[in-house]
Design a protein that fits this description.
The chain is built from seven helices and three strands, in the order H-H-E-H-H-H-E-H-E-H. With 185 residues, it is mostly helical. It folds into two domains: 142 residues, Ribosomal protein L17 (50s Ribosomal Protein L17, Chain: A, Alpha-Beta Complex), CATH 3.90.1030; 38 residues, no CATH class. Strands 1-3-2 form a three-stranded antiparallel beta sheet, with helices on one face. The relative contact order is 0.12.
């Protein structure tokens, strides 16, 4: 595949892909170079498809999001009858029961989506500015998962910080509970 074809594929993704490579360190695969990074990312993508929400460091979260988006996009576009897509799913998903989940649960869920399939929230920031990006945490989740939502409806500057997201959701639930009590009274 030449560079022009890769450029076309990246342009079809439904979210912005960072142009620079992220450094990912996994102690089990540390000495294997690029292959080790890919195997480490493979574990993360498998965990994200399995759990549908993960807390990761910033660089691992960005990379896992990009590969997960691509895997889901291929599954939605081509389906389970397309052999290259099945090979792709077979390699990326270490737990083979997740291949069934990808095609029977996630593809129907995302078939009519016009936006990205994942959402990324920033975790609490670290005090040191130079270490902030390196050690900051993010939460990556698949949209439409069955867990309680992480609402991002607050209008603060740092609305995607996980503590602000959780506080906003708690405020919303309290407001709904109060309205329900007023209606019953």
């Amino acid at each position: 595949m030449n560079q022009a074809e890769v450029g076309k594929l990246i342009g079809q993704l439904r979210f912005k892909v960072q142009p620079k490579a992220w450094k990912i360190i996994d102690h089990e695969t540390r000495n294997q170079g690029l292959r080790g990074r890919l195997l480490s990312t493979r574990k993360t993508v498998t965990a994200l498809i399995q759990n549908e929400r993960l807390e990761l460091n910033y660089s691992r979260g960005i990379v896992a999001r990009e590969y997960t988006e691509r895997l889901i996009q291929e599954a939605v576009t081509h389906g389970d009858q397309h052999m290259p897509t099945m090979e792709l799913a077979d390699w990326w998903l270490k737990d083979k029961s997740l291949i069934h989940k990808l095609f029977k649960v996630l593809v129907p869920r995302y078939q009519d989506f016009n936006s990205s399939y994942t959402r990324l929230f920033n975790g609490p920031f670290i005090q040191s500015i130079e270490m902030q990006r390196k050690n900051s945490r993010v939460i990556v989740e698949l949209k439409g998962h069955p867990f309680p939502p992480l609402s991002y409806s607050n209008i603060e500057v740092n609305r995607n910080v996980i503590s602000n997201v959780l506080l906003a959701e708690a405020r919303r639930e309290a407001r709904l509970r109060d309205e329900f009590k007023r209606v019953e009274a």
